[in-house]
Amino acid sequence: MESAAADVDQPVTDPAPPLEGERESVEVLPELTLEILDIIKTAQSQHGLRHGDYARYRQYCSRRLHRLRKSVGFTHGKGRYAKRPLEPSSVRDMRHLMLPLFCAERAWAYAMQLKRENTEQEPRPHYHLLARLAKATAWAEKLAALCAERTDQRTELEAKAYAAFMHGNLTLEREDWGPALGSFKSCATICTELSRVSMAEQVHLYRQMVAEVEPSVRFCAYNLRRLGGDEAAAEMDGADVEGLAGAEGTSDILRSKLEQVLAETRAKQVRTEQVDLAFLTRSPVF
Asked: In angstroms, rounded to a whole number, what is the distance separating the alpha carbons of residues 254 and 97?
């Protein structure tokens, strides 16, 4: 007992510092580059979206993810699913960054597939659609967070633009016009600035992205003015709604909203014409 007490009473000394050869070396990970917009636009055009086949593109994304996980050893094992979070320290080449990228693309493609199929605007498929868009946004934001720590400046900005685009799609479908407008404007601003400092072969990708979000920016601004009571601006912009629906790059989410506005506008015009006709038929003739 006395020896045990004596051991406890002994002063605690700091461990000796490691020798020069024993010091742990801090691994410096290389800065990565990933051409996000080029990868997704090429994949979309080659695997179904040139013809609006979202189901085919979604299947391609699933196959691509399976191959990527096997190539980097990031599988979830057999049997019970075990989640493996992707941290910045584990990102060692661009294939790790392509995992959240194609997870986002797969969820977005599924949402667009549901959008095409839900022609009757039933609530349950719409709820599922929103859940997929939220999942796509979460994956895009995860990609942006990883790129902020592990990639060069251009890749980081492309990831931010991509995340803003996905968030804009989600809030546009929710008809949350203010956040949607902010997200689409952020995406357009980043791509515009990148186009000014890029090589010729990259410029067209950024300009294509700006052209794709521009109709959504205009439509969100139109709805904010309409909700704000600016009737004159709403009527003036309403004449452009049909042009927005036919604009190049208009997304399916935006197109469905525009079709609703056009239907409401036409119904309002019919009611106005009916009122005018009724007034004329009841007016006395002198």
From this structure: 29
Nearest CA to 44 among 31, 56, 28?
56
Place of tokens 């009527």: 235
Asked whether the beta carbons of 105 and 61 are under 8 A apart, the reply is yes
User: Amino acid identity of 198?
Assistant: S
Q: Give the CA distances from residue 148 to residues 91, 145, 154, 157, 205, in Å, rounded to whole numbers and listed in that order.
A: 12, 5, 10, 9, 21
* Torsion sign (Cα): 227, 228, 229, 230: negative
| Dist. CA 172–CA 183, nearest whole Å | 10
> pLDDT tens-digit profile of 52-100?
999 999 999 999 999 999 999 877 666 665 677 889 988 999 999 999 9
Mean pLDDT value across residues 138-160: 96
Closest CA to 158 of 64, 34, 16: 34
pLDDT in the model for residue 85: 80
pLDDT in tens, 4-48: 444 434 444 444 555 554 455 556 788 999 999 999 999 999 999
- Spell out the domains of the chain, with CATH numbers in brackets: 34-73+87-248 (1.10.3450.40)
Give the CB-side neighbour count of residue 218, counting CA atoms within 13 A: 20
Residue 151, SS3 per DSSP: strand
Three-state DSSP class for 146? helix
